[in-house]
UniProtKB/TrEMBL annotation:
InterPro entries: Apaf_helical, Disease_R_plants, LRR_dom_sf, LRR_R13L4/SHOC2-like, NB-ARC, P-loop_NTPase, TIR_dom, Toll_tir_struct_dom_sf. Residues 12-149 form the TIR domain. The lineage of its organism: Eukaryota, Viridiplantae, Streptophyta, Embryophyta, Tracheophyta. Pfam families: LRR_14 (PF23598), NB-ARC (PF00931), TIR (PF01582), WHD_ROQ1 (PF23282). The keyword rRNA processing does not apply. This is Disease resistance protein L6-like. The keyword Ion transport does not apply.
């Protein structure tokens, strides 16, 4: 296993790469950040340079850097004293610059200033000088490090010292990373009928291959399917735009909220990659101006969904021209929106018509009969109902669901109602289903419509049970009637149904929110509070005072809402005596009260509360929490998140019915009160990120009904022995990775384990050691066993007797020497151990889908580590992904028979054993590749090939029938043998990245590479020429000369990016023929290079980086790059190729000119001209 931690299964692609100096931050800040990111579901690679050896970035680290989308360097006092950290940073900067905005850097300044990183102070400057002297490093290498440091400083990051504690800044980092990584795809729910032709029509209108701007307005009545169509088109096209795409939902409704348009402007800017600009927006006009500036310089894909009027579009697009290639899609019920004409676009209309009769009948039947067509008895009746509905998809779905299983009399009565409803009155049609609900089900529907769309279901269900609304039945009815959907345990509702619910509430007393049953907008809440009448009808309200000047609600104001059962308050507090207020509350959510409370409430009695949530609430301390819950006998849920004044939990004796208890981010929490053991009804206990909590009371073992127990990111030394006797427990998660390995804190799983209902056991703790006890045979329902990053040394044979075990994860368990026979139920096996001595036997777990076995041979220099072979591989019937890193172990002969295998990684296997591969493979990675690995035939489906050659001088990929290969990555690592690489007939190849092949002299291209978009060569010290043959090119101009690199556009007709890094044998580069697709050209640290010619042929080049070579004198055509956006010059002598009086470089092109680590120019071409004149 590599010397790093990964918050992911071994072999998965990482999303985030964390670079840091181990002695400075590993135990503490970086550890906490790592686990917080990991718990947020983010796959993170954590490298520790202390554990590494050698002088070159190795393959595993290189892959982690290449695969990651976000890089987080943690700059600390001695970061610049580490060659590893500086090498990583240089590679990170290189990857980011070539990613076309698809990769990002988020720096953290731990205990240093940004000026330190920018080399303005002696701290990092002297550290690099010391490295240069002590290690006798080259000027080129050191200068590259200095440039990387200065470049990264230009990126806004977090200065830890400006925050109150680690938790605050870590929470911000996790939130930002989550926002940037979240998938752009939109969820499309329901049975889709008749949508394909519409998708094709809109996609053709958008024409993403055109260089022009396209804005499409989809208009039509509500419920006709505009949003669904926009989501599908957006999902299909978003991959063309990387991070520069955004789907803004419910623009019309959100614009009506306080600062609604400003928030939409911020969201738009953040999602297309400008969070810093977004944070500066405080007024609509300013936001419009900044959006216009951004959209004029960036190709984007944006959807504005459910726009009410043209003004909303203008405020969100700005008044500037849109960047060529941009696409904007607008959905609206208002046809007038499409009459906008911008500076370089007009809105093309697409009218969304009702479904065809056949499609509408099919959709209706899918909900009314669970089939594609109605039964014969109901055929005519179904057709009449669909016609009466008006063929609107939402109404068809809702009415069809309502009629499912109903008597024929109900069908005929419904048809009669529909016939009396105006054809275009969607609400009245939908209201037929609402009217059919019981009183309790209506209350649930209205609560969701007004408050809980997008919210987790659990807390609302507790409240509804307390109100006797029978939610288990009620929610099922709403789902079956297509009025509500549950997506990932959260409520989802169509905006038409949401509007229906809110309109029903408004009609209770038009214009008088104080008489409504629910109030969900701040303005209406204020309006109701200003009147002195009792508000006996109001059951629920939400109020956000974070941007209000008035932060307080008096006891008199809240006391007028005597029947309030739900209150959500953000950014405000109460004032006065609350003895007679909030007494009927069932659910209170209170977050972010002002930190300085000039008025504090008294006598807050919550005797009837069922759900109590506090978040970022400094008002709540030990005594107040104790006072609030001492009489809360009905309390079922207590959740405290980021309440820093909580230092110990209260006495829970007063709330014996508590079922769920959550402490998250209470980083001063030190002690759990022993009374927690008396909570016999508790089923779920979660304690996360409580950094002062070191011990758990033994009384926890008295929680006989507990089903879920989680302790993560807390320095708790060990689990109490009493935990292992909880027969009701279903899931046990314990991760104290925050703590160091300490022999005094070592612990073992006890010999007596009575968790007879346990399904998931996950422990990540370096202090857990010893043998997994045989008592695990008492876990008949165990599905998941994860013991990664522990010192577990042995898994007992009894594990084969666990009938339900599906996942066994033992990653980075370096004391395990062998595994016993494994159960047939297993479908996921991951084990990595530097002590592994025996290859796992695979004849029994025949249902494996994922297999990852690593003997740590990456760290071994010689010798056969494992004995045995991969017996039983041929019996595996379902493997999808295999990763086998086993030194000198014979390759399994049965690999070719694994017909479902998609991904395969082979490393270190016995070079004398021939290997045949299955034709199903899509991705293949082979370390120490040699001729015995057969690539000769049957790999027609392969799309990605990564090779690390061993004892091979030549690789020829011609004639191998790799018709679908899109990615080729030869990597040298420790290989000093590969001299020639031949490529031919690879018509779908998009990416070639050749890295660290020191003996590679020549790459031969045969034929035209009509799909190749990226060509990269790094650290190829002997590379001297590219050869061309075949029908694509001929003539003297391509005569190969040593050191002359020719790039003919006829061969590379689709090339977008070229990179040449640290290739000292290259003397000159020549671009032949014009190209309008080339975007990036990077040539760096090639010390013998003296000329780059033909750049003027690259008509649309956007990024040029050249320099850091000793002799580069000619950069021909630099001055003619009219589309350039970024220019980086690493040698001040090249400035002469920019004539400030005649240059065609755009004035807004960003320029960076390195003149030594003490001096550089940074700014636009316009500012460079002024600088030269002055």
């Amino acid at each position: 296993m590599e010397s790093s931690d990964a918050g992911t299964s071994s072999g998965s692609e990482y999303q985030v790469f964390l670079s840091f100096r181990g002695p400075d931050t590993r135990f503490g800040f970086t550890d906490v950040l790592f686990h917080n990111l990991n718990d947020a579901g983010i796959r993170i690679f954590r490298d520790d340079e202390e554990l590494r050896v050698g002088e070159r970035i190795d393959g595993s680290l290189q892959r982690a850097i290449d695969n990651s989308k976000i890089y987080i360097p943690v700059f600390s006092q001695t970061y610049a004293s580490s060659q590893w950290c500086l090498r990583e940073l240089a590679q990170i900067m290189a990857n980011t610059s070539k990613s076309e905005g698809k990769k990002e850097i988020l720096p953290i300044f731990f205990d240093v200033e940004p000026d330190d990183v920018k080399l303005k102070t002696p701290l990092y400057r002297d550290a690099i000088l010391n490295l240069e002297r002590e290690k006798k490093l080259s000027n080129e290498q050191v200068d590259a490090w200095r440039e990387a440091l200065m470049e990264v400083d230009a990126i806004k990051g977090w200065e830890v010292k400006k925050y109150k504690g680690y938790t605050d800044v870590i929470n911000l980092v996790v939130e930002e990373v989550g926002q940037r990584l979240k998938t752009k795809h939109r969820l499309v729910t329901g049975h889709l009928v008749g949508i394909d032709d519409r998708v094709v029509a809109v996609t053709e209108l958008l024409d993403v291959d055109s260089y022009s701007v396209r804005v499409i307005g989809i208009h039509g009545m509500g419920g006709i399917g505009k949003t669904t169509l926009a989501k599908i088109v957006f999902n299909q096209l978003s991959s063309h735009y990387g991070k520069c795409c955004c789907f803004l939902e419910d623009v019309g409704a959100n614009s009506l909220r306080t600062d609604g348009l400003v928030e939409l402007q911020k969201k738009l800017l953040s999602e297309i990659g400008h969070p810093g600009v977004a944070r500066s927006i405080d007024a609509i006009d300013y936001g419009t101006k900044r959006i216009g500036e951004v959209l004029s310089n960036k190709k984007v894909l944006i959807v504005f969904d459910d726009v009410a009027n043209s003004d909303q579009v203008l405020k969100l697009v700005g008044g500037n021209t849109l960047h060529p290639g941009s696409r904007i899609l607008i959905t609206t019920r208002n046809k007038d929106v499409s009459r906008i004409n911008g500076p370089n676009y007009r809105i093309l209309e697409y009218e969304m018509e009702v479904m065809s009769s056949d499609h509408a009948l099919e959709l209706f039947s899918s909900h009314a009969f669970n089939r594609d067509s109605p039964s014969d008895d109901y055929k005519n009746l179904s057709g009449n109902i669909v016609a009466a509905i008006g063929r609107l998809p939402l109404a068809v779905e809702v009415i069809g669901s309502f009629l499912f299983g109903k008597r024929e009399e109900i069908w005929r009565e419904t048809l009669e109602q529909l016939s009396k409803t105006p054809r275009d009155d969607v609400f009245e049609k939908l209201k037929i289903s609402y009217d059919a609900l019981s009183y309790e089900q209506r209350q649930i529907f209205l609560d969701i419509a007004c408050f809980f769309i997008g919210q987790h279901t659990m807390h609302a269900i507790y409240m509804w049970k307390d109100c006797d609304f029978f939610p288990d039945i009620g929610v099922d009815v709403l789902i079956s009637m297509s009025l509500v959907k549950i997506v990932e345990n959260r409520f989802w509702m169509h905006d038409q149904l949401r509007d229906l619910g809110r309109e029903i509430v408004r009609h209770e007393k038009p214009g008088n929110p104080g008489e409504w049953s629910r109030i969900w907008t701040d303005d209406d809440v204020f309006k109701a509070m200003r009147t002195k009448e009792m508000k006996n009808n109001v059951q629920a309200l939400t109020l956000d005072l974070r941007k209000s000047d008035n932060k307080t609600i008096t006891s008199e104001e809240i006391g007028r809402f005597q029947h309030l059962r739900y209150l959500g308050l953000s950014g405000g507090t109460f004032r006065g005596n609350l003895a007679m207020s909030l007494t009927n509350m069932s659910w209170i959510f209170w977050s972010n009260p002002p930190r300085r409370l000039f008025f504090k409430p008294t006598n807050m009695h919550l005797n009837n509360v069922v759900v109590l949530e506090f978040s970022n609430n400094d008002f709540i301390d030990n005594s107040k929490l104790q006072s609030l819950i001492k009489m809360a006998r009905k309390l079922k849920v207590l959740s405290l998140e980021y309440c820093q004044n909580i230092k110990r939990t209260p006495d829970f004796s007063g709330c014996p019915n508590l079922e769920r208890l959550n402490f998250n981010g209470c980083y001063n929490l030190r002690k759990l009160h022993g009374s927690i053991g008396k909570l016999r009804s508790l089923i779920d206990l979660k304690i996360r990120s409580c950094y002062s909590l070191e011990n758990l009371p033994e009384e926890i073992g008295n929680l006989v009904n507990r089903k879920h127990f989680l302790v993560e990111e807390c320095p708790v030394k060990k689990l109490p022995n009493s935990i292992w006797k909880l027969k009701s427990l279903c899931e046990l998660h314990f991760d104290n990775g925050y703590t160091r390995i300490c022999s005094a804190n070592s612990w073992e799983i006890p010999s007596v384990v009575m968790l007879e209902n346990l399904e998931v056991l996950r422990i990540y703790s370096r202090n857990l050691k010893g043998r997994l006890p045989p008592a695990i045979r008492n876990l008949p329902f165990l599905r998941v066993l994860r013991l990664s990053q522990t010192r577990i040394s042995e898994v007992p044979e009894i594990v084969s007797m666990l009938p339900c075990l599906q996942t066994l994860e033992l990653i980075d368990c370096d004391e395990i020497q062998e595994l016993p026979m494994l159960p047939t139920s297993l479908n996921n096996l991951q084990v990595s151990s530097k002590s592994l001595r025996v290859v796992p036997h695979l004849s029994n777990p025949t249902n494996l889908v994922l297999l990852d076995v690593d003997d740590g041979s990456h760290w071994k220099q010689e010798g056969k580590i494992c004995i045995g072979d991969l017996v039983g591989m041929g019996k595996l019937s379902k493997p999808n992904k295999l990763q086998l890193k086993l030194l000198n172990v014979p390759a399994p002969a049965e690999l070719a028979s694994l017909s479902l295998l998609k991904e395969l990684c082979l490393s270190g296997l016995d070079p004398q054993t021939p290997v045949r591969l299955p034709s199903s493979l899509l991705k293949l990675r082979v370390d120490k590749f040699n001729s015995v690995v057969s690539l000769s035939s049957g790999l027609e489906n392969l799309s990605s090939l990564e090779l690390t050659p061993s004892q091979v001088q030549e690789i020829q990929l011609g004639g191998l029938q790799l018709h679908n290969l899109t990615e080729l990555i030869p990597k040298g690592d420790n290989c000093d043998t590969l001299e020639t690489l031949g490529l031919s007939n690879l018509t779908k190849l998009k990416t070639v990245m050749v890295t660290a092949c020191p003996k590679l002299v020549e790459i031969q291209f045969v034929g035209a590479f009509e799909s190749l978009e990226e060509l990269s060569f790094r650290w190829c010290e002997s590379l001297g020429r590219l050869g061309y043959a075949g029908e694509a090119e001929s003539g003297d101009e391509l005569t190969m000369e040593e050191g002359r690199l020719i790039l003919p556009s006829r061969v590379f007709c689709k090339l977008r990016r070229f990179e040449l890094l640290c290739c000292p044998k290259i003397l000159q580069i020549q671009v032949l023929g014009t190209s309008e697709l080339w975007k990036n050209f990077l040539v760096w640290d090639c010390r013998s290079l003296h000329s780059v010619r033909g750049l003027s042929n690259l008509k649309k080049l956007e990024e040029l980086r050249v320099g850091h070579g000793d002799g580069l004198q000619v950069v021909e055509g630099l001055d003619e790059l009219e589309a350039l956006k970024y220019l980086c010059i690493g040698d001040p002598s090249l400035e002469r190729w920019i004539d400030e009086s005649t240059t065609k470089l755009p004035n807004d092109c960003r320029v960076y000119i390195y003149r030594g680590y003490k001096e550089h120019f940074e700014g636009t071409v316009q500012s460079y001209k002024r600088y030269k004149v002055s």
